Amino acid sequence: MRKFPVAREAWTYVAILMLPAVAAYLFFIPGFIVILLAIAGVIFFFRNPRRVVPQQPGLIVSPADGKVIEVAKVTEDQFLNGPALKISIFLNIFNVHINRMPIAGEIGWVRYFPGKHLPAFNEEASRVNERNYVAIDGECKVLVTQIAGLVARRVVCDVDKGRQLKRGQIFGLIKFGSCTEVYVPADVEVLVSKGETVKGGETVLGRLKM
What we know:
Elements: H1 10-27, H2 29-45, E1 59-61, E2 66-76, E3 82-91, E4 98-100, E5 105-113, H3 125-128, E6 131-138, E7 141-148, E8 155-157, E9 164-165, E10 170-174, E11 178-185, E12 189-190, E13 197-198, E14 204-207
């Protein structure tokens, strides 16, 4: 689990901006100020705030920050292989873009698909956009989809098949505006509704029926 308040992906962008920042400082102070603001924006976007993860058994927490844009009954045929509940979370550019484990468990598989970059809230986005599926086998089976959006141009996933992770542990991020979907068993008691704001690793999306 990352222990720093800024995700490591930020430092590539900061390093790229440092050279023009030095040049601007020497020759064009207004440009230097603009670049400093850009660096601050990058650090803000890649921030990694501490989260208090609920520890009670049977809980499924949000894999991302953002707004719930859909709670729907679906058929999931990749991992759950049957009736499921899909909870879609839209992340704007001001949200924390770190992705966290909704449950503790083993990574069953990871599958990446290149694709388009429609707005993440578009109904077609989950089928045609660049996306990454993470299958988790724990107290139940959960499938998380990282979906790149209009501005987001890269999905980052730091886990591989067979790895064991804790609930709330970081497994990746999506850059610059996106959508995260989570598929859970159909009999899960859903505790959020459309329009609610959630926090990754903290907000409880649902509870297993024990």
